[in-house]
Amino acid sequence: MEPVATKQLSLVLAGRLRLVNTRVIPTGLKMKRRWKMNRMLGIGGVLLGMATSAACCAQTAINGASLGVPPADPAIAATLSGISPSQVQADITKLVSFGTRNTLSSMDTDLPPGQGINAAADWIESEFRSISASCGGCLEVKRDEFTEPGGSGPGSRIPKPTKLTNVYAILHGSSPDKAAPWVLVSGHYDSRVTDVMDSHSAAPGANDDASGVAVSIESARALSKLKLPGTIVFVAVAGEEQGLNGSKHLAQLAKAQGWPLVAVLNNDIVGGDTTPGDLLQDKTAVRVFSEGVPAVATPEQAKQILALGAENDSPSRELARQIAELAPAYFKPTELRPPPVGPGRARSQLVRLVPAFHPVLVLRRDRYLRGGDHTSFNGEGFAAVRFTEWRENFDHQHQTLRTEDGVEYGDLLKFVDFNYVANVARINSMMLATLASAPTEPQHVRVLTKALDNNSELAWDAAAFAPPGTTYEVVWRNSTDALWTHVQSAGAETRIKLNVSKDNVLFGVRSVDAAGHRSLPVPPVPARQ
Fold first, then answer.
1. What is the pTM of this model?
2. CA proximity to 75, closest of 516, 507, 453, 449
């Protein structure tokens, strides 16, 4: 019989625990999680993915194959190509047109007609309903309305009871199996100026965070054309600037209603700031932030995680790592050639290779002194990451519109790169569609430690959602590597023995459907059987 502490640690690693009065209680949901390590790492030149290999019986010692770039799903690739920078531009422009989207403006009665956050919420809802109408009613559009109580403390950013509204659309999966995975994408539609309590001054919030809302809406347009077994939730939350109020309420709602979320993708400041003269911005890169030790881990579980060297294998790190693994399948370098020249003039043959758009994994929950809506979902035990542009310009965030000493302050539309936002929407949609197509994670993953030897024997239970043809594969990497480097298929078996020392590498086990869609990996915990 496995010790209770080991079972609880296994559930934390798989993302299946919530904390109630400091007690660890299984949620009973058929969801899982994993973890892994990211490093500050770009994808350019890093080959990732998986290589198929023959299934083996449980007692055969084997070596794995090196990972390569995974194949792209043609249906997903075609959907990504339809994501439109011009539509992204239209969405951001519309959100900017509401003057201010400060959360506190929901209670103001003296704003001009069509201004303020309530008008913005109504438009977002109408846009989701329009997308739903174009796909035959495929989206269930909902409003999560609640009143945030006011506070008088020195850190309070909501001085009186204030109405908040999260707007979201659910693309229900085609599978009737309640264990089929759910995934969620979000951005926050509230905005602010220098004084976060100022609910009347113009606060365009083009980058922070109309860009993230545009990612959510455009992902809905694109993915609503697909029929996927899993469910996708497209979200715009309020209250981020006042203290993550909207996302906290929605994350608690998701937990209470038992949403089997395997991944949450938060997009905040993904506009690819375009400031004249800034030579350090990288339009080919987007940062992905993820927590290490899960926020829901108890002190004892955190101690065990550190003892196992698993602090870089949290469910959120596994999510970030898989984003890095999949990106090279869908994003390729491009060639820029000189334009045609006039008759009689020699044309340059110089070709410039532009690196592929890629995620850069940051081993940090968020930036210094900053926070984001993904942490609300981390706090409820969900795997969640944050996407943010490579180089932020703080003159264009949280600033009252003005020009001082020749510097233009304010989060204005003209500083947003709509092609960049479209690429962020593509990378989000890639991950959403892949995980909504995949089986859920294997359960109760363990590495057997009864024998002292240089082999590694792993065992697991079948995934809760495992369509016909589901198989399993083990991946591993050296403890100093950021990404998986080797893979070995176990076929339909749920036990495998490798002639790789468990003391030298880090393992993960993931489910694979017949088309090659993979769940997030689950790291094993030590067990006797």
1. 0.88
2. 516
- Rounded-to-integer distance, Cα 257 and Cα 231, Å: 14
Give the DSSP H or E segment for 12: helix 4-13
Q: Please state whether beta strands 182-188 and 231-237 pair in parallel, antiparallel, or not at all (unpaired).
A: parallel
Q: Nearest to residue 316, comparing CAs of 5, 13, 8?
A: 13
Nearest CA among 386, 388, 475, 383 for reference residue 435: 383
117-174 tens-digit pLDDT: 999 999 999 999 999 999 999 999 999 999 999 888 888 999 999 999 999 999 999 9
Task: Please tell me the distance from the alpha carbon of residue 385 to that of residue 375, in angstroms, as a whole number.
Answer: 8
Distance CA(455)–CA(503), nearest Å, equals: 9
SS (H, E, C) 373-399: CHHHHHCCCCCEEEEEECCCCHHHCCC
The 3-state secondary structure of 158-199 reads CCCCEEEEEEEEEECCCCCCCCCCEEEEEEECCCCCCCCCCC
Unique residue bearing structure tokens 């459907």:
513
Pair of tokens at residue 239: 């209250």
Closest CA to 406 of 397, 395, 394: 395
CA distances from 490 to 3, 260, 525, 528 (A): 26, 26, 18, 20
Tokens linked to 302: 């955190």
Nearest CA among 224, 213, 301, 222 for reference residue 15: 301
> How far apart, in whole angstroms, are the C-alpha atoms of residue 446 and residue 461?
9
> Which of 49-63, 295-309, 420-434 ranks highest by mean pLDDT?
420-434
Residue 31 has pLDDT above 50, yes or no: no
Reduced to 3 states (helix: H, G, I; strand: E, B; else coil), residue 510 is strand
DSSP secondary structure of 36-101: B---SB--TT------------TT-EE-PEEP-PPPPPHHHHHHHHT--HHHHHHHHHHHHTTS--
What SS3 state is found at 210?
A: helix
Q: Where are the alpha helices (DSSP H) in 97-167?
A: 117-134
Is the C-alpha dihedral spanning 454, 495, 25, 233 positive or negative? Answer: positive
DSSP element (H, E) containing 461: strand 456-461
Which comes out higher in pLDDT, residue 13 or 315? 315
Per-residue pLDDT, 451 = 82
User: Does residue 69 contact residue 329 with C-beta atoms inside 8 Å?
Assistant: yes
Q: What are phi and psi of 271, to 5 degrees?
A: -90, -5
Rounded to 5 degrees, φ, ψ at 345 are -110, 140
Greater model confidence, 126 or 31: 126
pLDDT reading at 4 higher than 60: no
Q: How many residues does the chain have?
A: 529
Q: How far apart are CA 247 and CA 252, in angstroms?
A: 8
